[in-house]
Amino acid sequence: MVTGTRSPKAVDKIPGAITLVSKAELARSLVLTEDATAVLARSVPGYAESSQAMSNTGENLRGRVALRLFDGVPQGSPLREGTRNGTFTDMGIVGRIEVINGPSASEGIGAAGGIINYLSAAPTKEGNEFTITSRYTTQFKDDSAGWKLGATFARKAGNFDMIASASSLDRGITYDGDGRRIGMNTSGSLADTESRNLFIKAGYNFGEDGVQRIEGSVSHFNIEGKANYIQVLGCRPDERALCGETRTNTSERGSVFGSKAAINDFKQYQLSYIHSDFFGGTLTVNGYKADQEMRYLPENTIDRQDPLIAPVNTLYDQSEIVTNKKGLRTSWTRPSLFSVSGLELRVGLDLVKDTAQQRLALTDRLWVPPMEYSSRAPWMQLSWDIGPVTLSGGIRREDGELQVDSYTTTWYRDRRNVGGGSLDYQENLTNFGAVWRIDDKWSVFGSYGEGFTLANVGIPLRNIQCSGDGGTIQTNGCPNDPPISVEDLLDLNAIVVKNTEFGFNWRGERGSLSASHYDSKSDYGQSLAIDPATNDFVLLRAPVRIKGYELSADWRFNEDWRISAVYSHTRGKTSFWAADAAGRYGAGGMNKPMGVLDINPDKFAWTLTWNFIPRGDISLGATTLFSRNLSGGDVRGFDNRSFSFNESTHGYTLFDLGMNYETERYGKFSLGIENLFDKQYILSWSQPPGGFQNYWAGRGRTVSISHTFKF
């Protein structure tokens, strides 16, 4: 059963590729690492390589940014995507993860790339249960040690149930396979951090036969850098003429004077009401409030300079993003509509208000102006089970408004005055599909779906500058340019994704096999590139088409042995140039391959599990990212300008080993070894040239010992 479709739905009645990450799979991943997205990289075919950082830069689902939900509440903000929405809670409180591929019309803004729905754990047996978890991690270096201590209390008594959890996690610095300290990620590192998590959820069933339920939850997660290290830039192979011998980024003890700790702080509150016999259907009303604060490491890049504050190249500053979201999600599900067996109606109305802004925290300068997006979205879905066939279809009306305050850009962007304004977004998003359950083992499906999101609005807003800049910094506010307002920017146009997909599923007594093929298009999409002057991301708005296929399988040889595997292949194309704002030329043809910042290389991952005794198991797994060479070119007829793109990434294979042994009296003991053979490798998204000196290696061998005790 999947709940990420707004109401519980059997997997074999959903026309699309679904991946369910069970509690057992989560537990196996947590034996190896506490990284929140590592389990997705190992078990979800289309999910990209884990960044191994607080930032989830480059982590996408089938080449697009997915909407992450925690108990149905959106995490992060598409207004200013800070790539921090993958680390928002202690994974020990997560009961399972639902990954729904492809755009979703049952969800609103942000669901153009699919849905990753994290569901919190729930009490499973009557009475009280306490769980104490402890963990020690090391790479056998003095400053690499980390530890965790967590406690969970669960109670289920009649109509009442609750779960409360608190945890503390301290991480040391990390080392690569060569024994060299890994550099601090400027977008946010997990290394050298402390995190705290508090989660409380309680529910009560009432009414005749308990058909009504009220449930509330509070979640507060904070991860904060300890600021014991500063980054020392490395030298890419292609930049040796500028920086000398090839070397990866590293860290050395120290701190930037006056800097603040890097943080990622999530607060989430929600209250739900469910009536399972409301006019013959199930009514669900969910109100929520979610706040996030992200602060990044100090940098002295050119885009942070201001000679009125300090001499150029001497000013360190820290970016800080603050987002606030509140909303109301409603749905009513009516089975056997019009007394027709198998005909189900789902309708609802979603309301949301999302605000975001970005500042340079040390000097209190505005970098991205305050933005507010308000949306009203009624939606409807119909499904009809006709024997072995399920037909489904629906529509969502997205009616939103983006308001942006007036502001002045920074010194590096010429101190240009930009007028505020508002933009309206109206889209009708449709979907339809079919599933044919051929027999009790085989089924095939096909679907078409549309999704809606905004581009990373904050990036084009902060990058506005004089029209005739020519690479020189002007500081007089561009008096010769005509006035400009946010309403003039094509870069703020919405992204509407259209996705077609077909595939099959086989489920037997001892195993399963699934495969799907997809084709995803957006006439006005987004892709990332790196500004060589600032080492920061810039947003390219042009048509995008992404195609790929996926395979997943598992097989149980007997009661003791099981193997599972996933494979994904994805390729994307976009244009070398977007349409000219003045209308002089249109967007180019889709001749530019999308690189590793947007599209992950081919991936193959497998896990072999042996239950060597009734209470013990051993899992050996491996993940392979394949090498890839991309190239393309185009010539713009308007000015005969030539464009070219070349990118090569080198693949690697990492092995992991996990062991569990549960005693009857002393709890469960676990041993995890990540990167078993201590392989030295460069993270794929860090390999291509363009991000000068931002050259990160992945973690070397890491050993973790865990103990879980329940009473």
Explain how this protein is built.
- By secondary structure, the chain is mainly beta.
- Helix content is 4%, strand content 51%.
- The chain has helices spanning 23-32, 38-43, 240-243, 458-462, and strands spanning 18-21, 67-70, 73-74, 94-101, 114-120, 127-138, 146-157, 160-170, 193-206, 212-225, 229-232, 250-253, 263-278, 281-295, 319-334, 343-360, 365-386, 389-404, 407-408, 417-418, 421-437, 442-454, 494-507, 511-522, 527-530, 537-540, 544-556, 561-574, 592-593, 603-613, 616-625, 628-636, 641-649, 652-663, 667-674, 702-710.
- The strands form six sheets. The chain has a 22-stranded antiparallel beta barrel. The chain has a five-stranded mixed β-sheet with strand order 1-4-5-2-3.
- A hairpin with a 4-residue loop joins β27 (544-556) and β28.
- The longest helix has 10 residues, at 23-32.
- The protein is globular and about 70 Å long.
- The relative contact order is 0.13.
What is this structure's SSE topology?
Layout: E1 18-21, H1 23-32, H2 38-43, E2 67-70, E3 73-74, E4 94-101, E5 114-120, E6 127-138, E7 146-157, E8 160-170, E9 193-206, E10 212-225, E11 229-232, H3 240-243, E12 250-253, E13 263-278, E14 281-295, E15 319-334, E16 343-360, E17 365-386, E18 389-404, E19 407-408, E20 417-418, E21 421-437, E22 442-454, H4 458-462, E23 494-507, E24 511-522, E25 527-530, E26 537-540, E27 544-556, E28 561-574, E29 592-593, E30 603-613, E31 616-625, E32 628-636, E33 641-649, E34 652-663, E35 667-674, E36 702-710
Parallel strand pairs: 2-5
Antiparallel strand pairs: 1-4, 2-3, 4-5, 6-7, 6-36, 7-8, 8-9, 9-10, 10-13, 11-12, 13-14, 14-15, 15-16, 16-17, 17-18, 18-21, 19-20, 21-22, 22-23, 23-24, 24-27, 25-26, 27-28, 28-29, 28-30, 30-31, 31-34, 32-33, 34-35, 35-36
